[in-house]
Design goal:
The complex is a heterotrimer of chains A (212), B (61) and C (504). Chain A is mainly α. Chain A is 32% helix and 7% strand. Chain A folds into two domains: 32 residues; 175 residues, Cytochrome Bc1 Complex, Chain D, domain 2 (Orthogonal Bundle). The chains are: A mainly alpha (212), B mainly alpha (61), C mainly alpha (504).
């Protein structure tokens, strides 16, 4: 085989085939998916994210959370995602239409976060966990994100209302307190906004599940 | 129908057609025939077949 | 077979050839340069790519070590945000993929292309400029990642202010390759040239598409994931794999002095790879929120990869039959054969993990990480090391200064990568089984992985030691370049072992 033109054509056409098949076709099929309005309750899924949570998504991206946490729930009978309580139904394409960067993830060094906002809605838990995961989840290998917090002297007005409640070895020195920075607030707002359990025609929540 | 659909449908028809045509053209002009001597291209008079190169380890004193 | 038209064609292009190489010799096309002349013409540009690649290799392996330690000891260096695990991990990936592996592969590809086209390197300035752009791009990109500007899109983490610089470098390299291809003095094409030409044309297309659809004008929703994995899998399949295979196809015959087992099989191997590999990407999304047809089509294409993989395996391993003894004496052959065997293993592992039933267990675990290192390191990087052992003495006209360092390099990285890939593949499988059993607490699964992750740090240390030995040897070789030219030069030593020993 010593013919340049044949080689060029082959190189061009082979990649063009999957470029059409795996890039342009999905774009055509899924690129304009919209929200779904439930005919009974008039609820709209998926809901768009509010300002602070949207900014938190950028923090989530910038801190690279995606490298250890997935945001996808696999279907029934495929893995144990549903049994572990990571979701009430599998996730589908429509769940991601509002994400500026879709962070499905490929590693579960940590648990899936698709519905973390539903599974753990307590903001104080999230702050403590981010500050040092050992406070809430002993034995975790998640790195402490203390740099998202400020340790400062307690002011004359007493402890700030947003100061973290830390005990034992994790408590700051006497007279000081740990408060979340703006970025921590945004990140936690994002985490608490993570919910993908609306009833969708292509992925119905099982009735007995929904009744819970 | 948006323009992209035309491009897509067009490519779906045109690409395989072009591929088939190219394949037929290449085969009919003998472009897939490759003489076994092409396998000898890495060699030349200074480094002919049958002579190993790069034998540098374990030969030094 | 010479096309008469070639002599009159492209006077402008021909002007790019140095010296008298562009002059046609009596209607016979361009004069075929001899190997020493070609090697000498490659010296500066190829050295640039190799040396900067090796600098990134050292940086990348240190980052890898830090990331590995952080995963079992999360308190390690935890105070600095720019050294948070995900940053270090991502900086590691981008330095070794774009800084080390891609740069060295461009160096190897440039040298191979010149040798097989039988012309001295045309337009060396173009290659050197491409190299400068390249290093600028990687520096800006990795800096951006460490500063928190990572895009969090796997394999495309470099921020969008860095990527156009890299893209222009790829474009320059593609242009250079086409020019060289057009200028070739040898009309016949060897199998390595198909792979090289394909790689340099495919990659800018992949990279450009991914940049536009993910960073410049991001597409909506999970289409991003489709584009992401179409790109990321094809970086391996259509950029690294072809260059790795091109090198194996050249160096095994060259070192053992025996042509490839079956030239016809190599035709089948090339075209089946071109047809099937680029459809594989969606197997990274098995079980994910994408239409089933996309994932199924990628699983089918992954299984079809058995054709090119088995074809190439037969070709490489049968060529080696009866010549394994030569690995004792040739560093190039050691690394290349290690890489060729790993290619077969990595491909089979990859095909297996694409199946739904296997992916259900291995998908989100360290099994995938082990597989990536089997492909990128045990296969690709080892082949590149082997190629550099062959090329560097020839372009510098100096011999390797220290055989002990060569052995240290080989055994360090060979043991290191085996100690990495085998336990991690196994561990990933067990981890996946545990994750799929909802009665086992998640944190218990995490605890299970810890000793294995510590073992990985040990494996990493071995590999870093090997890299340091290699870089030391290369440094020493460069120092020798400034010593007076001494016979015997390597070209003379290509013959029997005795000639070599006698020459000392």
């Amino acid at each position: 085989m010593s013919y340049g033109p044949l080689l060029f054509l082959g190189i061009l056409l082979t990649l063009a085939s999957s470029w059409v098949g795996l890039v342009l076709m999905p774009h055509r099929q899924l690129g304009s998916l919209g929200q779904h309005t439930d005919p009974d309750t008039a609820a709209i899924f998926p809901a768009a994210r509010a300002g602070e949570a949207q900014q938190g998504a950028e923090i989530y991206r910038s801190l690279g959370c995606v490298y250890c946490h997935t945001q996808q729930v696999r279907p029934e009978d495929y893995g144990s995602d549903l049994e572990r309580g990571w979701g009430r139904r599998r996730t589908v394409s429509r769940d991601y239409i509002h994400d500026r960067t879709v962070m499905l993830g490929t590693m579960r060094t940590g648990p899936d976060l698709t519905n973390i906002g539903e599974r753990q809605s307590d903001a104080a838990w999230h702050y403590r966990h981010l500050y040092n995961p050992q406070t809430t989840s002993p034995g975790s290998i998640m790195p402490p994100h203390a740099f998202l917090f400020e340790t400062r002297a307690i002011g004359p007005a007493g402890r700030s209302t947003n100061a973290l409640v830390l005990e034992g070895a994790f408590a700051p020195p006497a007279g000081r307190e740990v408060v979340p920075t703006r970025r921590a607030v945004q990140l936690v707002a994002y985490l608490r906004s993570l919910k993908s359990s609306g009833d969708l025609p292509e992925a119905p929540v099982k009735k007995e599940e929904a009744a819970r | 129908m948006p323009v992209i659909s035309f491009i897509l449908l067009g490519s779906v028809v045109l690409l395989p057609a072009a591929a088939l045509w190219a394949l037929r053209w290449a085969a009919s002009t003998g472009q897939f025939r490759c003489p076994d001597k092409v396998a000898l291209l890495p060699f030349d008079e200074s480094e002919p077949v049958g002579v190993a190169t790069d034998q540098i380890l374990g030969n030094r004193r | 077979m010479i096309h008469p038209s070639q002599t009159s064609k492209n006077p402008t292009l021909r002007a790019l050839l140095p010296g008298d190489a562009g002059a046609g010799s009596g209607g016979d096309g361009f004069r075929k340069a001899d190997l020493a002349e070609i090697d000498a013409s490659c010296r500066v540009p190829v050295l640039f790519f190799f040396l900067s690649g090796l600098a990134w290799l050292i940086a990348g392996s240190l980052l890898a070590l830090v990331a590995s330690i952080k995963l079992h000891s999360p308190g390690f260096l935890a105070a600095w945000e720019w050294l948070v695990f995900s940053n270090v991990r991502t900086a590691h990936l981008n330095t070794v993929i774009y800084g080390f592996a891609s740069q060295v592969s461009v160096g190897v590809s440039v040298w191979l292309m010149c040798r097989l086209c039988r012309i001295p390197l045309p337009a060396p300035g173009l290659v050197t400029v491409a190299n400068l752009f390249y290093n600028l791009g990687v520096t800006v990109g990795v800096g951006g990642i460490l500063l928190g500007d990572s895009t969090a899109i796997e394999w495309l983490e470099m921020p969008r202010y860095a990527t156009p610089i890299l893209f222009s470098s790829y474009a320059l390299i593609a242009v250079w390759t086409i020019v060289t291809f057009r200028l070739r003095a040898e009309r016949h094409l060897y199998v390595s040239q198909w792979y090289l030409l394909a790689a340099v044309l495919w990659f800018p297309w992949l990279y450009g598409t991914a940049q536009v659809m993910l960073l410049l004008e991001p597409v909506r929703g999970v289409v991003q994931a489709a584009v992401n994995w179409w790109f990321a899998h094809n970086v391996l399949g259509l950029w690294f794999t072809p260059i790795g295979l091109a090198s194996i196809y050249y160096f095994i015959p060259k070192v053992i002095g025996r042509p490839i087992h079956s030239y016809y099989l190599s035709v089948l191997g090339f075209w089946s790879l071109a047809l099937f590999y680029n459809w594989n990407g969606m197997h990274h999304l098995v079980g994910g929120p994408l239409p089933a047809w996309m994932i199924t089509i990628s699983i089918v294409a992954s299984v079809m990869m058995l054709i090119p993989v088995i074809t190439v395996a037969i070709n490489h391993h049968f060529t080696m039959l009866g010549h394994f003894g030569k690995m004792r004496h040739s560093p190039t052959l050691r690394f290349i054969v290690f890489g060729a065997v790993s290619y077969t293993l990595a491909s089979l592992q990859g095909i297996a993990s694409a199946l739904r039933s296997v992916s259900e267990v291995t998908h989100f675990t360290h099994h995938t990480i082990a597989h990536a290192h089997l492909g990128m390191y045990a296969f690709f990087s080892m082949v590149m090391f082997g190629a550099m052992y062959y090329i560097l003495p020839r372009i510098t006209q100096r011999e390797w200064p220290c055989n002990g360092l060569i052995s240290l390099h080989f055994w360090g990285v060979a043991l290191g990568i085996v100690l990495y890939v085998v336990p991690m593949s196994l561990m990933g499988f067990i981890q996946g089984t545990k994750l799929n059993d909802p009665t086992i607490r998640f944190l218990d699964v995490v605890q299970f992985t810890l000793p294995w992750l510590q073992l990985r740090t040990l494996a990493g240390l071995l590999m870093v030691a090997g890299h340091v030995a290699f870089v030391a040897n290369v440094g020493w070789l460069l120092v020798r370049m400034f010593e007076p030219y001494r016979k015997p030069v390597v070209r003379i030593l290509t013959g029997e072992a005795e000639t070599l020993a006698a020459g000392k």
